[in-house]
């Protein structure tokens, strides 16, 4: 008696779940599928097990899209992009399960819609969105990137409510730096070795000039012992070597690449008699000396 009441109660429950499903009751994987699993294990040994087994193939009248099928951003999409000034910048937005939704790119500085799908919405034709089917990527290309293009960009999916992914764009310019600056201490009679690096340069600088005070250093001057070695690459490095440093070699030195701002250091040539006898003086710990 008690057993048949229990079976009847379970049957009722199955019917409730089924009618709930046919009314579009599946809201997501958690509620919908977990309760199905429970029902199946509960009813595994009974005449109603057949009915329960039918549940997964229940009719999908009024079926609503489960949440896990909705579009989402691939979390591996870079959030911080660095581009070279004057070159193209590429911002990725990888969207899974996009289905019939649309991906838009919005510039945050002025809340300007740049692209909608593959259509460029702004009159600035430097902006273009390209869809790569194989990677689910909606790439925003910004041609001839400028300093003012730097900032936050929003990739938006037209869900209700919308979903957003933010990407920061940095625009860099070629930068020159002299290592060990701003002050270098060299002993009289040793070799002054100045190292200038040029970074973020799309191509190596056509030339690098060195200046002492405000005058271009002449490598063939009567002073002699002056040489420059330049190694071009992703990072271009130029070494200025001045042998047998004299007090007159003190002063400001500048490195002026063809495509970057000038970098400067101040060189102090120290007369031997002030040379520290112990290595405790912090001023000299960064010195760039070479014994001749
Ligand atoms: C983004 O990248 C730039 C350039 O590589 C870097 O200077 C900056 O610290 C980075 N910002 C964040 C939040 O990671
Ligand atoms: C997208 O597809 C869903 C069903 O999958 C439909 O209900 C909706 O109207 C469609 N939206 C657009 C904008 O086509
Ligand atoms: C000059 O200094 C740089 C950086 O410290 C070093 O790599 C280079 O070998 C030095 N050149 C000479 C000739 O000593």
Describe this structure in words.
By secondary structure, the protein is mainly beta. The chain folds into three domains: 2-68, no CATH class; 70-172, Immunoglobulin-like; 175-284, Sandwich (Immunoglobulin-like). Helix content is 14%, strand content 36%. It contains three helices and 20 strands. The chain has helices spanning 2-22, 29-42, 49-53; strands at 72-73, 80-84, 89-91, 95-96, 103-107, 112-116, 119-120, 127-132, 137-142, 151-157, 163-172, 175-178, 183-187, 192-199, 208-212, 215-216, 226-231, 236-242, 251-257, 263-270. The strands form five sheets. A six-stranded mixed β-sheet has the order 2-11-10-5-6-7, with no helix packed on it. The chain is elongated and about 85 Å long. It starts with a helix and ends in a 22-residue tail after the last strand. Residues 10-60 and 283-292 have low confidence and may be disordered. Bound molecules: 2-acetamido-2-deoxy-beta-D-glucopyranose (NAG) (3 copies). One 2-acetamido-2-deoxy-beta-D-glucopyranose is lined by residues 80, 82, 170.
Quaternary status of these chains?
Answer: single chain
Largest sheet: 6 strands, mixed
* The number of domains: 3
Q: Roughly what fraction of the amino acids lie in strands? A: 35-45%
Q: Got a strand count?
A: 20
Q: Look at the structure and give the mean pLDDT.
A: 78
Q: Helical segment tally?
A: 3
CATH class value of the largest domain: Mainly Beta
Strand order of the largest sheet: 2-11-10-5-6-7
At the fourth level of CATH, the homologous superfamily of the largest domain is Immunoglobulins
Ligands bound to this protein structure: 2-acetamido-2-deoxy-beta-D-glucopyranose
Q: Can you tell me the CATH topology of the largest domain? A: Immunoglobulin-like
* Low-confidence parts: 10-60, 283-292
Helix/strand order, N-terminal first? HHHEEEEEEEEEEEEEEEEEEEE
* Structure classification: mainly beta
- Principal-axis shape equals elongated
Q: Whole-number radius of gyration?
A: 35 Å
Distance between the termini: 108 Å
- Based on the structure given, which CATH architecture of the largest domain is correct? Sandwich
Q: Into which percent range does the helicity of residues fall?
A: 10-25%
């Amino acid at each position: 008696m008690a057993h048949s009441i229990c079976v009847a109660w379970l049957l009722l429950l199955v019917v409730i779940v089924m009618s709930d499903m046919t009314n579009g009751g599946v809201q997501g994987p958690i509620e919908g599928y977990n309760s199905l699993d429970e029902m199946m294990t509960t009813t595994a040994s009974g005449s109603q097990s057949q009915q329960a087994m039918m549940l997964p193939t229940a009719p999908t009248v009024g079926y609503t899209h489960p949440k896990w099928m909705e579009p989402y951003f691939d979390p591996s999409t870079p959030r911080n992009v660095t581009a070279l000034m004057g070159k193209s910048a590429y911002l990725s937005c990888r969207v899974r399960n996009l289905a019939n939704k649309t991906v838009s790119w919005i510039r945050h500085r002025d809340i300007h819609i740049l692209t909608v799908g593959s259509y460029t919405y702004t009159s600035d034709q430097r902006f273009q969105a390209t869809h790569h089917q194989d990677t689910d990527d909606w790439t925003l290309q910004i041609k001839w990137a400028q300093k003012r293009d730097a900032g936050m960009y929003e990739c938006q999916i037209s869900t209700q409510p919308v979903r957003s992914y933010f990407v920061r764009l940095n625009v860099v310019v070629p930068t020159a730096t002299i290592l060990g600056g701003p002050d270098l201490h060299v002993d009289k009679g040793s070799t002054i070795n100045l190292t200038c690096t040029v970074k973020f340069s799309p191509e190596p600088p056509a030339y690098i000039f060195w200046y002492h005070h405000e005058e271009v250093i002449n490598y063939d001057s009567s002073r002699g012992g002056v040489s420059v070695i330049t190694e071009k690459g992703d990072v271009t490095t130029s070494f200025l070597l001045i042998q047998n440093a004299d007090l007159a070699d003190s002063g400001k030195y500048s490195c002026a690449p063809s495509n970057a701002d000038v970098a400067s250091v101040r060189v102090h040539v120290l007369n031997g008699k002030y040379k520290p006898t112990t290595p405790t003086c912090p001023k000299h710990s960064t010195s760039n000396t070479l014994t001749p």
